[in-house]
Specification:
heterodimer, A: 47% helix, B: alpha/beta, 5-stranded parallel β-sheet
């Protein structure tokens, strides 16, 4: 129904109401003379119901309360106000809602909308706090939490309030699949605002929401209907949602990310906490990678997908984001060129060519359970190498230690002397032979040309 | 042609005829050698045992006649040229003989001058015929087994290089392997080509050990010291303009021998180091990691060495040098032209033909 029709219908309704009750109105007994508390209610004066019943005299009062016979400044109790007489649509939605199911125990219209101060939900200043305060009258625990959240505190007029996420009359339990905050629908609900570019949201956060729907988490929900897959609130929280990564209260603050992801990925969290990356984090070191550094956040993908940062061919680039940084390597005494020696190896070169079967960093060092090679539990601890290499090479049952060579050998003392010597001999031989070949060829061309020209 | 010694076989039952040949040609032993046979049967016996340039046979002899000698002799020695000697009465038979392939005939009786002129003329005809044949057919440089082995080598080497080189420049070749598993396919093709190369090498060993052709070729390509070194040194001096005369090479020049043994060495090294890299698992069971590292270094640098040597040295010397560019056809046809033979392998030409390797006027025509 478009705007013009609505105005016409409202106008007709107003006329019917005023005609219906007009004969009973007694100008000599204005309601507000006695009900002065209503007269002085600022909310009533602002309310759109002011315009009912012709908008003057007793008209607005009678429109809701009906006509009463006033005798000696007294009148019988007027019938109960029936909002549905005019607002015929609302109860349909309300009936199937969690509030409607509660019957008489549920809230009535006035519990949410107020009485004389009833006001439009559209574009009113302070809207979101206003609505929250109404809901908060019953849902006081949630209200308290919400008030401390970014949505609750944001100065932005459009910041989400209860009804933006939960809906209005048709509000349902979060566990009801038809609820707007059910795990299967929630992301769509958040995206209603967070994919909009006209709300002053940072562009990267708008992009993040779009990315989420293509991520392993988003697809698990939208395609597979997997309830346990992460949706917005699992990482960001809901009533207590926070802004700013520095906040200790924020679940996606760097230091808290493993714990947040670990709510679902408990097994991985246990491994990570024991790892060379996880242990320093417990001590407050924020240099170490957390889940999202390797897996990314909204664009997270299964490591079987080529676009994933943890796909076989991407792993080395992901690790080298940190492990090629001189500052970090120096700070923690990690030998340089571990990355470049890998990339120059057969494993590395083949991986660059797109071979996903050759070893990448994680194949040997593990993904979550990464430990220093001096740790006897490390996959790269010398005694464990047969087993680690044996994942691909058939040497898992070799008992003789494989310590006779270093994998990422860069320093002279880490290498056996022979391959280096042979390499040098080859380089000299190559240079000598090619030098001779080329000079011979040049001389030969000159000689042949001269001979042909009879010189 | 000057400087060439020709072998003449004279078959005649008349002693006087045999003697006349002896008398006319014995005076110049560096030009002529005369062998005589008193009958057709005896002549064929000599033909079976020795080679001759010119064979003169009487038409009418007791026992085997001249036409029979001609027919069987040509079958025995297709290289030799035949001429008939005949009395006046049997000129027609002599003409028949020419139809059977004889070069010419001479009527008996003949005087010394007439005989000399006849034989000289035949020698000239024969020279011309040989030159024309050589120019038309060239010489067999590579026998069929060699051409086939070389071809298999070209294919396997190219495949190995194409599938190996990307590992040197993975960044550059990242886009070339356009589907997911093509890098795996790269390794697979490399190994298949390697097995083919190993098969070829095994065959080659059998070829040089057990076939006459391989035996002869291998003996020819074995290095001769100091002859080959002298030839190589002379070649270098000549190429760099420090010597006027080009050293005369045989069937295989020093550089060709160098390339052959380079391939033998390279194949051996690549196969051994390649097997270490292929069967790393088994190697690591018995050897330390540096053995694998060594194999990696060797396989890498030997490959670079081989590819550059083929691309620069072999391709230039065989195909791209002035006069041959863009391609020598020897590797396809197995045949080398007479001109090239005389230019590049004069000693071999002389050994094969028994004639001096002199290019007839080609240089003059060119300049």
């Amino acid at each position: 129904m478009n705007g013009r029709h609505r105005v016409v219908i409202q106008g007709i309704a107003g006329i019917i109401v005023s005609v219906g009750f007009a004969p009973g109105v007694r100008a000599e007994a204005p309601c507000l003379d006695c009900h002065s508390e209503v007269a002085s209610d600022e909310g009533f004066r602002q309310s759109p119901h002011q315009r009912l019943g012709g908008g003057s005299g007793n008209g607005p009062c009678v429109a809701c309360h009906g006509d009463v016979e006033v005798t000696d400044d007294e009148h019988p109790k007027p019938p109960r106000v029936d909002c549905v007489r005019c607002h015929q649509k609302a109860p349909e939605a309300l009936k199937t809602s969690v509030h409607g199911e509660a019957g008489d125990d549920g809230p009535s219209c006035v519990d949410c909308h107020g009485t004389h101060d009833v006001t439009s939900s559209q574009g009113n200043h302070g809207r979101h706090r206003h609505i929250a305060s109404h809901c908060g009258a019953c849902h006081d625990q949630e209200w308290k939490v919400f008030q401390k959240s970014w949505h609750g505190q944001s100065p932005a007029e459009q910041a989400a309030t209860c009804s933006d996420c939960h809906g209005g009359h048709g509000i349902r339990r979060p566990t009801d699949p038809q609820s707007t905050v059910h795990r299967l629908t929630q992301a769509e609900t958040c995206a209603k605002c967070h994919s909009r570019t006209d709300l002053g949201l940072p562009p990267e956060s708008v992009q993040a929401v779009k990315d989420y729907f293509g991520s392993v988490h988003g697809l698990a929900i939208s395609r597979s209907g997997l309830l346990v897959s992460a949706t917005c609130s699992d990482c960001h929280g809901f009533h207590d949602i926070q802004h700013g990564r520095d906040s200790e209260r924020n679940r996606i603050a760097r230091a808290r990310i493993p714990e947040t992801c670990g709510k679902c990925h408990q097994g991985v969290l246990d491994l990570y906490r024991q790892s060379v990356h996880g242990r320093p984090l417990e001590e407050g070191n924020l240099d170490v990678p957390v889940c999202t550094d390797c897996h990314r956040s909204h664009t997270i993908q299964s490591h079987y997908r080529a676009e994933s940062s943890t796909y076989a061919s991407q792993v080395s680039a992901t690790c080298l984001k940190c492990h090629a940084q001189a500052v970090l390597l120096n700070r923690y005494g990690i030998p340089e060129a571990r990355g470049s020696t890998y990339l120059e190896s057969y494993h590395g070169a083949s991986a660059k060519l797109g071979d996903t079967r050759v070893a990448n960093c994680a194949s040997c060092h593990e993904a979550h359970d990464i430990r220093a090679h001096t740790d006897p539990q490390a996959s790269t601890y010398p005694d464990n190498l047969p087993k680690t290499c044996g994942k691909c090479h058939r040497i898992e049952d070799v008992t003789r230690p494989l310590k006779t060579g270093r994998i990422h050998a860069t320093l002279a003392q880490e290498r056996h002397w022979l391959p280096g010597l042979v390499e040098r001999i080859y380089i000299v031989a190559l240079a000598g032979m090619m030098g001779f070949f080329l000079s011979y060829i040049v001389a030969h061309v000159v000689r042949s040309t001269r001979k042909r020209h009879g010189a | 042609m000057a400087g060439t010694r020709r072998r003449l076989l004279v078959i005649d039952d008349e002693e006087v005829i045999r003697e006349s040949f002896r008398k006319v040609f014995e005076g110049e032993p560096d030009r002529w050698e005369v062998v005589v046979a008193p009958s057709g049967e005896a002549g064929l016996e000599r033909l079976r045992e020795e080679t001759f340039d010119l064979v003169f046979t009487d038409l009418k002899m007791p026992g085997m006649g001249g036409l029979e000698v001609l027919a069987q002799g040509r079958r025995l020695r297709p290289d030799a040229d035949f001429a008939m000697m005949t009395g006046y009465a049997s000129v027609e038979s002599a003409v028949d003989a020419m139809k059977l392939g004889a070069l010419d005939y001479i009527e008996k009786p003949f005087g010394p001058e007439e005989l000399r002129a006849f034989v000289e003329r035949l020698a000239g005809l024969r020279e011309e015929r040989i030159r024309v044949t050589e120019e038309r057919r060239g010489f067999l440089r590579f026998t069929r087994p060699v051409v086939v082995q070389h071809f298999v080598m070209v294919v396997t080497f190219t495949l190995l290089a194409l599938t190996g080189v990307p590992l040197f420049f993975p960044e550059t070749f990242r886009g070339v392997f356009f589907f997911e598993d093509s890098s795996y396919l790269r390794g697979l093709i490399h190994r298949i080509a390697a097995v083919a190369l190993m098969g070829l090498s095994t065959y080659h060993v059998g070829y040089i050990l057990y076939t006459e052709d391989g035996n002869r070729n291998f003996r020819a390509i074995l290095p001769r010291v100091p002859g080959d070194l002298k030839e190589a040194w002379g070649n270098i001096l000549y190429t760099f303009g420090l010597r006027r005369e080009k050293p005369r090479a045989g069937q295989y020049t020093f550089f060709e021998k160098f390339e052959y043994f380079g391939v033998v060495w390279g194949t051996l090294v690549m196969v051994l180091s390649g097997l270490v890299l292929w069967f790393t698992d088994q190697v690591l069971r018995v050897a330390p990691l540096w053995v694998v590292d060594l194999a990696k270094v060797v396989h890498r640098y030997e490959a670079i060495l081989a590819i550059l040597t083929i691309a620069i040295w072999h391709m230039y010397n065989v195909h791209w040098r002035p006069g041959v560019f863009p391609m020598s056809r020897v590797w396809l046809t197995g045949r080398i032209t007479r001109e090239e033979m005389i230019e590049e392998h004069p000693l071999w030409y002389e050994a094969l033909t028994g004639r001096p390797a002199v290019a007839e006027g080609h240089e003059e025509v060119r300049s």
